[in-house]
Design goal:
The chain is α+β, with helices and mostly antiparallel strands. The chain contains eight helices and seven strands; from the N terminus they run αααββββαββαβααα. The longest helix has 22 residues. The chain is globular, with a radius of gyration of 22 Å.
Length: 252
């Protein structure tokens, strides 16, 4: 795509000057001040999800220059991001400072889900919150593979609103959570039942590893064997790919 759009030279300059395979000191300080970030994940089929995370400054916690952790709170019970991470460990984090520096930071890497009881003994300085809605159910540990700037050019400069009512962390009160802002609950009641399941669940039922159209006929053992061998071969290739040492020479 860089060749097609004539940007290869500009991209190479960006790789050489701005992209790291770790978090430098300024990046670590920047992360420690942020109260929110945007999280991108995808399931094993590559279907994407984007989510928002917020908490007190430092809730996205820097362990070292190659490791971040953040807590997963109780939320709405869907746990789409955690489900995706369990199937596909690649994730992307975007932090944006709208209020002071008006700059952003991308962090891409591989994630794993870790219990608090496992993580905290090794890192006793982890934040420990007394607010019930901000107590970590589990933590996500991110191994940093790429870190680079998001330029200020199109980031709006915002101002903090005056302090209002306290945040209702952990509440199940629908009104305090935003109510039926988009009218979907009312529409579901009119239909007489819940909405259909998400499209990704309809698109990939039954057999892991591919959409419904790829599932062999139930009365064809030879086709099922071939299908299973294809899945195993794909899993072996993905594992070998994930175990490769990241390329680091660009950044010295």
């Amino acid at each position: 795509m860089q060749q097609r759009l004539g940007t290869t030279e500009r991209a190479d300059r960006f790789y050489g000057e701005q992209m790291l395979d770790h978090l430098n000191e300024r990046m670590r300080e920047f992360i420690g001040r942020q109260e929110m970030f945007f999280l991108a994940t995808a399931d094993r089929h590559g279907e994407c999800d984007n989510s928002f995370r917020a908490g007190p400054p430092g809730f996205l916690h820097v362990i070292d220059e190659r490791t971040l952790v953040y807590p997963e709170y109780r939320g709405n019970g869907v746990h789409a991001s955690l489900g995706n991470i369990q199937e596909n460990p690649h994730l992307g984090i975007l932090l944006v400072d709208f209020f002071q520096a008006r700059i952003g930071l991308h962090v891409n890497g591989r994630a794993e889900i870790v219990e608090d009881a496992e993580l905290r003994p090794a890192h006793p300085d982890l934040p420990s919150d007394s607010v019930p809605g901000r107590r970590a159910l589990v933590w996500v540990r991110v191994t940093v593979e790429e870190a680079y700037i998001h330029c200020a050019k199109h980031i709006p400069h915002l101002q903090r609103a005056p302090k209002g009512t306290p945040r209702d962390w952990g509440t199940d009160d629908q009104r305090r959570k935003g109510g039926d802002f988009f009218g979907t609950a009312q529409a579901a009641r009119r239909r007489g039942g819940p909405s259909v399941r998400p499209s990704r669940e309809r698109a990939h039922p039954g057999v892991p590893g591919g959409p419904a159209g790829h599932v062999p006929p139930s009365d064809d053992p030879a086709a099922w064997r071939a299908h299973a061998e294809q899945l195993l071969d794909k899993a072996r290739r993905r594992r070998a790919e994930s175990e490769r040492t990241p390329f680091r020479d660009w950044f010295g």
